Amino acid sequence: MIYLIVFFFSLSLFSQFEETVVITASPYKTTLEELQNHAEVIEGENLKEKDSLEEVLRFNSSSFILRSGSPGKVSSLFLRGSESNHTLLLLDGMPLNDPYFGNIYLSEYLTDSFSKVEILKGPYSSIYGSEALGGVVSLFLDKNIKKNLSLNFGENGYYDFNFSYGKDKFNFQFSKHNENGRMENDGWEENQGFFYYNGENIKTFIFSRKGKVEIPFNGTQITPLRNQKTDDFLFSIPFEKEILNGWNVTGFAGFLKSNFYFEDPEDQWGYTWGKTKSQRIFGNFKIFKSFKDFHIAFGLEGKEEKVWDKNVFGENLKGEKFQNNAIFFQGKKTFKRFNLQFGLRYDKSSNFGSSINPKVGLFFPIKDFNFYIQAGKGFRAPSIGELYFPYSGNKNLKEEKLQSYEAGLSYKNFTLNFFKNDFKNLIDFEFSTYKFENIGKAKTEGIEFSFKNSFLFFSLNYLKTNDLTKGEELLRRPKFSGNLGFFGNFKNINFSFSTLYVGKRWDVDSSFERIEMDSFIREDLSLNFNIFKTLKGNFKIENLFNSSYEEVYGYKALGRRAIFGLKKGF
């Protein structure tokens, strides 16, 4: 490992960050060069060559993902050791986290619809409020699409179809994905698309997706008919306008409707079906201005969420409601030797009270070196399910809280980060009261190292976790993880080779006993090449060396798979 690091330092480097703007980090222009220690931008072929958002996130330095079996199945995202519901998922600013229990479903989003994914590490509740404890994953629709048609085929019933059409102010895109998995009743299918109108000041987009995931077993029980279906419909009206004296106004109003349906006619306990419906009305308004050495932004935000839930045994929730309003500001001041960045947000909820979350950071540019120190707070509001689910819901729950400290440096394309997170009031199920309670405390701390240029990517992460309530390491968080990737071209053939390493970690078996999971390595190879002027081909192999491993205990990962495709431009 030492020789590898020395080799990386000896390479001829050049910056890749100067013109990349990170939109999620602030309303005003913020370059990736300033944020490279806690931000990552994935776009172009690095984004499109992966099927789902989950596959994109697992091959980068910022996140760690474990999946329960084959593609399409439930995935858990741990940004800096936080829980999955501690990461906020956005689509052009609209929150996508499930209002029921705050979860995010990474496998359900196909990459064909998006032009860019931004990942912010650390607490961002000072801008985005609840769920942004571990960080933010932000998706951006591909609003400058060309006329394209692509089709990919692979083993085990794999096919992926994408059609896009753009003309003047209108854009349309549709994707269909299907695969059968490794065994009976192990398939995954997904349909996704959007329509976008690009007006001068006011724009409109509709995003919709519908999917089905088959579930082949439950523990040791074979389930040949078990499956779950999900669908989302999102409507948003974004707007932006420059007003007097250089002040800019941006924002949007949006509506999100989601459905989740589970069925298993042969369930041994009689739980043959369940259905959850949720909806979110959301609005965000920001005004900002950039001066010579000072940037300032103010914002207002409001949302209302409702959840209905019923199953074969009866009705659980009847449109229980959650409301939240917030006001926030953010600024950056440039001094002679350093930059000061600061933010503060106040949230007022109908269910748990109020929360104030500040964040402050100092950024020191010294020639080619950049140093930073940062501290902030974050929170997660109790979900509607945790508040109101029959018998186990608890209306007296408080928000989960985080206090975070971090420091780091960067030199050209190298970054080194140190972080420490203290969580309290974590919501967990208490068996003595048979209710959700604020009983959890945890601590995570770690070191992140990364290097990236146009042909090489390397990251290595060390994570130490402690469940302060039980005195044990947190489950499914490896101490060591990392990535190594090579990129390049040869005679009009673009190639990428990616390696994922996940170290040993704790999990639980079917009897809830702790068990240590083995480390594993997975390699992917991807080739893109020109056949004719407007016809391109691609070929990729996932799990190149057919490694056998389990990401989550009891769920064997997918073996080697080859995929070939064509893309036609018009």
Number of helices: 6
In total, the number of strands is: 35
Q: Report on the biggest sheet.
A: 22 strands, antiparallel, barrel
Using the coordinates shown, work out and report the CATH topology. Maltoporin, Chain A
Question: Helical amount among residues, as a percent range?
Answer: under 10%
Give the second-level CATH assignment, the architecture: Beta Barrel
User: What is the alpha-carbon Rg in Å?
Assistant: 23 Å
CATH class: Mainly Beta
Query: What integer is the average pLDDT?
Result: 91
Fourth-tier CATH superfamily name: TonB-dependent receptor, beta-barrel domain
Unreliable residue runs: 1-18
Helix-strand makeup class = mainly beta
Proportion of beta-strand residues: over 45%
The domain count comes to: 1
Whole-Å distance between the termini?
47 Å
Q: Indicate the overall shape.
A: globular
